[in-house]
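Example record

The entry below shows one chain as it appears in the dataset: sequence first, then structure tokens.
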Amino acid sequence: METWQIAVIPVLAFLCEYMDSTLGMGYGTTLTPLFMLLGFSPMQIVPVILLSELVTGISAAFFHHREGNVNFKPKSTDFAKVVERLSSLGYVESFKRGIPIHLKVALLLGVCSIAGTVVAVFVAVNVPKFWLKLYIGCLVLAMGVVILVCMNKEFKFSWRKLSILGIVASFNKGLSGGGYGPIVTCGQILSGVEGKSAVGITSLAEGLTCLVGVITYILVTKGALEWKLAPYVIIGAVLSVPLSAKSVKVMTARRLKLAIAVLTITLGTYTIYKTVTS
């Protein structure tokens, strides 16, 4: 790599990860085409993005939990208060055995990711990229429009919706390195999860999904992958995580939901545009 690339890559990773950890989306969807413009090939990019998001996803989950945006702590001291606050939303059954709803959602999405990601890696090497990218763009755009149209509507919590969305989102992630956050974050909101909690849950679930993706790519390619981008991407991305958790903490729920909807629509539109014009 040239010197200017080494200088630019961490900055791009920092900015994209800040957006991702603040709004629950945009890292892989934005970073993949940017790296392609810098001259790198998809197979140099996607595995590295998955590896970096494995690291940043776990880190972001920790910082979001610390800032109070999400609760991943089993049998926390405020357990009774949390149960009382969420009882009207149908969450009580999910607190059996002292497991917080946020942790259960993240684990469910992580389990769903196994099927979606493994299938995606095999599809990625056999299906024309045009149709795959067009599919992802249309799906992301549709999710954003639904969020925007239903801005003031409250949704009943649904494990079934989350399971389906987890499989679809992980399929997108394994396919292109992006398309996970928009589906999972918006999907959680449409399934009854609060915006701030949805961002923190997405971070943890995405980290688990990326672990599956990295392992699958290594097995499928028999270790024939290039990791030269990895150190620069990981350093830049990790540095943004504490700042993003602070940003989510101070944002109002409505403003966060609006930002998520607008960004999702933008990413979906951009993906469709780049697909049909390239």
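Notes for this example: Residues 29 and 93 are 35 Å apart (CA to CA). The chain has a mean pLDDT of 79.
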